[in-house]
C-alpha cells in the first residue's frame, strides 16, 4: 500500500537526503547543483504562527538573519568550485572530512540543520505521536515519558551551541535483536547524525539564538515548550517512512525455503 499523497508531499518537502551507503556518489550528474539546493528555503508556516511559544521576532532573526547568513556564506565559499555540483547532504558529509572539517563544513551543516529544524516544528504541535513512531519510541526507550526525559537531558546537557536529535541508527545484528532502532544524541556546533551515518528524525536547535529572546537563559523551559507545543510529529512520521526504505527496524524474517542457505 502506498504512503498516500499527503505523506508523499510531506516527504518531498524535507531537506535532501541519501542513505549512508551512497555517501561517496558525489559527482553524479543527476544531482542538482548546490547553489540551487542551498537557497534560503521558506519556513513551512508564517512568522507569527508559533506565537507565543516561539515569537515572530525570534523567527525573523533566527531564520531571516542567522539561517540566511549560513546560506549566503556557504554559497560564497563554493561558488565556481567543483563543490557546486554536489547535493547539500553530500557536501556536508564530504566536508566533515572524518572529523577534520573543511572551511565550508559549518555553513553547510547549519543550512541543512536549520532546514531540518524548520520542518521539525509547526503551529499547535507537540503532544504525543501515534502509530509506528509511538510504538518504536516505547520499544526503544521504554515509554514515551522515558523518551521525553532522555531528549530533554540531551538538549539541556549540550554545552554551548549545538543540537539534540532523535534519529534512526543501524545496530549490530550479532549483538542486538533488531537491525535498526531509535536513539537520542546531542551534537556540537553544526555536527548532525547524518554525517555519522545515521538517519535524523527530529531536532531541537539549542544555540542561544533559537530561544534567548523568548526564554533568556531558561533553556529548560524552551526545551519543554518545544516538546509540549511545537514538535511536528507528522514530519517525524514522514521521516520514519523514508528511513524505512533504508533500514529494517524489525527482526529479519528468513523465508522458509531460504533456511538451507543459512
Ligand atoms: Fe539556529
TrEMBL record:
Mitochondrion among keywords: no
Domain Manganese/iron superoxide dismutase C-terminal, chain residue ranges per copy: 129-237
Predominant cellular place of this UniProt entry's protein: plastid
An MF annotation (GO) of this entry: superoxide dismutase activity
Gene3D superfamilies, per the entry: Fe,Mn superoxide dismutase (SOD) domain (1.10.287.990), Iron/manganese superoxide dismutase, C-terminal domain (3.55.40.20)
Compartments where found: Plastid, Chloroplast
InterPro entries: Mn/Fe_SOD (IPR001189), Mn/Fe_SOD_BS (IPR019833), Mn/Fe_SOD_C (IPR019832), Mn/Fe_SOD_N (IPR019831), Mn/Fe_SOD_N_sf (IPR036324), SOD_C_sf (IPR036314)
Binding site for Mn(2+): 62, 114, 205, 209
Needed cofactors: Fe cation
EC number(s) per entry: 1.15.1.1
Alphabetical list of Pfam families matching this protein: Sod_Fe_C, Sod_Fe_N
The keyword ATP-binding belongs to this UniProt entry's keyword annotation: no
GO cellular component, one term: chloroplast nucleoid
EC class: oxidoreductase
Protein's name in the database: superoxide dismutase
Amino acid at each position: 500500500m502506498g504512503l498516500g499523497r499527503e505523506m508523499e508531499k510531506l516527504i518531498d518537502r524535507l531537506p535532501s537526503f541519501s542513505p549512508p551507503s551512497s555517501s561517496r556518489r558525489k559527482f553524479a550528474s543527476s544531482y542538482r547543483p548546490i547553489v540551487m539546493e542551498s537557497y534560503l528555503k521558506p519556513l513551512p508556516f508564517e512568522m507569527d504562527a508559533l506565537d507565543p511559544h516561539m515569537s515572530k521576532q525570534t523567527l525573523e532573526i533566527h531564520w531571516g538573519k542567522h539561517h540566511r547568513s549560513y546560506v549566503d556564506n556557504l554559497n560564497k565559499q563554493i561558488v565556481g568550485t567543483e563543490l557546486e555540483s554536489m547535493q547539500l547532504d553530500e557536501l556536508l558529509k564530504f566536508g566533515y572530512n572524518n572529523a577534520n572539517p573543511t572551511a565550508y563544513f559549518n555553513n553547510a551543516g547549519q543550512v541543512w540543520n536549520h532546514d531540518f529544524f524548520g520542518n521539525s516544528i509547526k503551529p499547535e504541535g507537540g503532544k504525543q505521536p501515534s502509530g509506528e513512531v509511538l510504538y518504536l519510541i516505547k520499544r526503544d526507550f521504554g515509554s514515551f515519558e522515558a523518551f521525553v526525559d532522555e531528549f530533554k537531558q540531551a538538549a539541556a546537557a549540550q554545552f554551548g551551541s549545538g543540537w539534540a536529535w532523535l534519529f534512526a541508527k543501524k545496530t549490530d545484528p550479532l549483538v542486538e535483536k533488531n537491525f535498526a532502532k531509535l536513539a537520542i544524541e546531542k551534537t556540537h556546533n553544526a555536527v548532525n547524525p547524518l554525517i555519522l551515518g545515521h538517519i535524523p528524525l527530529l531536532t531541537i536547535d539549542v544555540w542561544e539564538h533559537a530561544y534567548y529572546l523568548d526564554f533568556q537563559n531558561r533553556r529548560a523551559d524552551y526545551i519543554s515548550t518545544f516538546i509540549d507545543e511545537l514538535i511536528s510529529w507528522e514530519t517525524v512520521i514522514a521521516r520514519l517512512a523514508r528511513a524505512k526504505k533504508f533500514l529494517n527496524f524489525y527482526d529479519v524474517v528468513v523465508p522458509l525455503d531460504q533456511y538451507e542457505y543459512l
